[in-house]
């Protein structure tokens, strides 16, 4: 099945509470709802009824999705502008002043549409232009820079420069981006081995063994061993047509833009990594889920999938191997929490991206209740090099058990912002002061946000900690997706605290009470909530997923770094 087609799967597939309902992934439902909103500005009850019939879901489930996702709620103008309110853009404009400036020049408050329906404005929490913010999408056209409001008012020329991308070590995932190696080199060789070396099961075992030897762990933040996940899916007792592999391209952490670079500049490597994962898991269906705030990445991946089919890499019997693999690219609809694996799989199925308790884990009960291996973009982009060179070469880098490289993203406050591939274990000081060159324009580093809004904060006296998950967790700032947002001394820490709570209140899925009510309290009384250790303890210990459990630690980290300035 080619991209863009809607699959209807086997009778009896289930989706959380929608037990034993016929129908396969209803991802086409979100696309249809988005098209309806674009067509006449709002998703109507009739739109929801029609979509429910087309994708064979209850109207209530479709209504739940339409009322949940930011891209589907409210009225959309003929000109729809999404302005970034994420940490990097917040810092770049000295505390989020750009949002008010954009609102003024467009003549519409955030979250609203003009009476005549001509212009609407939506706040989002990252657009992937952290290196040159503040940023906005005017329709699907990016705009970025200190003069953002003037660009949107057509008083300054539009611009959205590409980031600096550099490998500070022999590259693994950046090979195609820096021009060292084209994609789709390992896949044909592995398929040739399928024909000659004992069939797909033998080659799948070989791939899993190399990835295990490499010590590859998820680069999306959780750090789970990749080979363990693939082994669990491969060991399931369902047929290959009912196993799935999914690439998580919902890079939503404010400050991260490495996945956007990979998807836009080297999409074939991601697809090759997904294909190798599918072979390793014995799966015949693959999906790439791309956040809607990355329209260019979505287009590039669709083009790359079409080219991969044309080149014989995908489909039925690629390169005469006797295996089958179909890949579909799917767009999200505006939800930070859809980056969490169980939420993403619900979104992929066309319903609200709420969190599902674990266990069971997706490798056992994933998309439509079937075994699913879900990996983020950077993880999959590392697989072709590991398979081609062998796991030992990858394991020789880093500091065991944390082996290999990591992409780090430096925001606009640095003298040399951009994406850097570095070896795990590199001291943070070497990254901040060496690669990044310290802060630009003589600014003074006051805090360093590591790993996005669910990561943490380091003070300027903590830069000797190495880029290792265990060390950074101990320091109070897990590395997450590898983003480093420098906060200078021009940002009021109370404004930063307020922005963190507002982010939490807007992006919580609302499933569990501690996170839902805790973030609302924080939004209403940010400083009081930050000092309320009973509230923070309740969120930390009783929330359902890392969104609620990690946010209190981030707030406490901000208190630690700024001390009396937040008391």
Blueprint (SSEs and pairs):
Elements: H1 27-40, H2 45-55, H3 59-68, E1 79-84, H4 87-92, H5 97-106, E2 112-113, E3 119-124, E4 135-138, E5 141-144, H6 148-152, E6 165-167, H7 186-196, H8 200-214, H9 226-234, E7 244-249, H10 258-265, H11 267-281, E8 285-290, H12 295-310, E9 315-316, E10 324-331, H13 341-348, E11 372-376, H14 377-389, H15 391-395, E12 398-399, E13 402-403, E14 405-410, E15 418-423, H16 428-435, E16 445-450, E17 456-458, H17 469-474, E18 483-488, H18 493-507, H19 513-524, H20 526-531, H21 533-542, H22 546-562
Parallel strand pairs: 1-3, 6-15, 7-8, 7-11, 8-10, 14-18
Antiparallel strand pairs: 1-4, 2-3, 4-5, 9-10, 12-13, 14-15, 16-17, 16-18
Descriptive notes:
This protein is α/β, with parallel strands linked by helices. It has 5 domains: 18-67, no CATH class; 79-153, 3-Layer(aba) Sandwich (Glutaredoxin); 167-396, NADH-ubiquinone oxidoreductase 51kDa subunit (Rossmann fold, 3-Layer(aba) Sandwich); 403-487, Ubiquitin-like (UB roll) (Roll); 492-566, de novo design (two linked rop proteins) (Up-down Bundle), CATH 1.20.1440.230. The protein is 41% helix and 15% strand. It is built from 22 helices and 18 strands. The strands form 4 sheets. The protein has a 6-stranded mixed sheet with strand order 6-15-14-18-16-17, with helices on both faces. Strand 16 and strand 17 (456-458) form a beta hairpin. Helix 18 runs antiparallel to helix 19 (513-524). The N and C termini lie far apart (58 Å). The relative contact order is 0.12. Residues 1-24 have low confidence and may be disordered. Residues 494-539 form the NADH-ubiquinone oxidoreductase 51kDa subunit iron-sulphur binding domain. One of its GO terms (molecular function) is FMN binding. Residues 1-21 are annotated as: Disordered. Pfam families: 2Fe-2S_thioredx, Complex1_51K, NADH_4Fe-4S. InterPro entries: NADH-UbQ_OxRdtase_51kDa_CS, Nuo51_FMN-bd, Nuo51_FMN-bd_sf, NuoE-like, NuoE_dom, Nuop51_4Fe4S-bd, Nuop51_4Fe4S-bd_sf, Thioredoxin-like_sf.
